[in-house]
Design a protein that fits this description.
This protein is α/β, with parallel strands linked by helices. The protein has helices at residues 17-26, 48-66, 76-89, 101-107, 119-122, 125-134, 148-156, 163-174, 196-200, 213-223, 245-248, 251-256, and strands at residues 7-11, 32-36, 70-73, 94-95, 112-117, 139-144, 184-187, 208-210, 237-240, 261-264. Helix 1 packs across helix 10, helix 2 (48-66) packs across helix 3 (76-89) and helix 4 packs parallel to helix 6. It is globular, with a radius of gyration of 18 Å.
Length: 265
């Protein structure tokens, strides 16, 4: 059977490419649709109620149009706010993205870990629950950056971003009490792994950055383990809710990530 149903990835922007890359390694035979809510970017600056309404509505439209076999919400902010509503609204598997606090706590030697996310993500009760459940013996420092996701988008557009911009975005995490003992930082936004080398170059001491992309990819592979796949791949699509100059400038980067066709919704 030639099952051409795609796996649909959704993010506010292009941060979810970091998760798409890991999933493609696990499932090279799959067909992918990558959807970016560029008209709503950045989610981290929006009110929770707006995200809670916007994400299920958009994913409903995308599901009707592309008929995916599974959806990955490759966005920490959208997942922590809207995952339950999306699962209630759509009758297909939904995989969310949550901060990798559990593996960070398992691996930390200093027992001080950082959570670097958007302002919307780090304030969620969901993050409180993860920290209490999995990192109860750790000091968990948080910082919500209002600019870092935008810097990652600029990087992918090929724009020059000064190191000082990355420094200003990340150093407040390390300036908190206990920050000099921190040994692991959770990238709690899918945009951030795309600029981890830039962050490593400006932080005050060496740490390891970790994220949940590989775990999400394994989960997707598990949920689709008995399914059929297309006879041929290569028609992967990037979909945007706004297709303007900023989105067109992303075209070379999108092609490097295996997305060669572009649409708007």
């Amino acid at each position: 059977m030639n099952d051409t149903r795609p796996i649909l990835f959704f993010d506010s922007g292009v941060g979810g490419l970091s998760v798409l890359d890991e999933t493609r390694k696990q499932l090279p035979q799959a067909r992918f649709i990558y959807a970016a809510d560029s008209a709503g970017f950045p989610y981290g600056a929006r009110q929770d109620a707006e995200i809670a309404a916007r994400v299920p509505a958009l994913l409903g439209r995308l599901t009707e149009r592309y008929r995916p076999r599974l959806i990955v919400i490759a966005c920490n902010t959208a997942s922590t706010i809207a995952l339950a509503a999306v699962r209630a609204a759509l009758d297909l598997p939904i995989v969310g993205t949550v901060p990798a606090i559990k593996p960070a706590a398992e691996q930390s030697l200093s027992r001080v870990i950082g959570v670097l996310g958007t302002e919307a993500t780090v304030r969620q009760r969901y993050v409180d629950d993860l920290a209490a459940r999995y990192a109860g013996d750790c000091r968990v420092l948080r910082h919500g950056s209002a600019t870092l996701a935008g810097l990652a988008e600029a990087r992918l557009r090929g724009e020059a971003v000064p190191p000082s911009a990355f420094r200003d975005a990340v150093v407040p995490l390390f300036e908190q009490s206990g920050g000099d003992s921190m040994d692991i930082v959770v990238n709690a936004c899918t945009h951030f792994p795309l600029v981890t080398p830039d962050l490593m170059a400006v932080i005050p001491h060496r740490v390891r950055f970790i994220d949940g992309a590989a775990g999400i990819a394994r989960r997707v592979a598990y949920l689709t383990r008995d399914q059929q796949w297309p006879d041929q791949t290569g028609d992967d699509i990037a979909v945007f809710t706004r297709w303007g100059d900023s989105e067109r400038a992303l075209t070379p980067a999108l092609k490097r990530h295996g997305l060669h066709h572009f649409e708007s919704i």
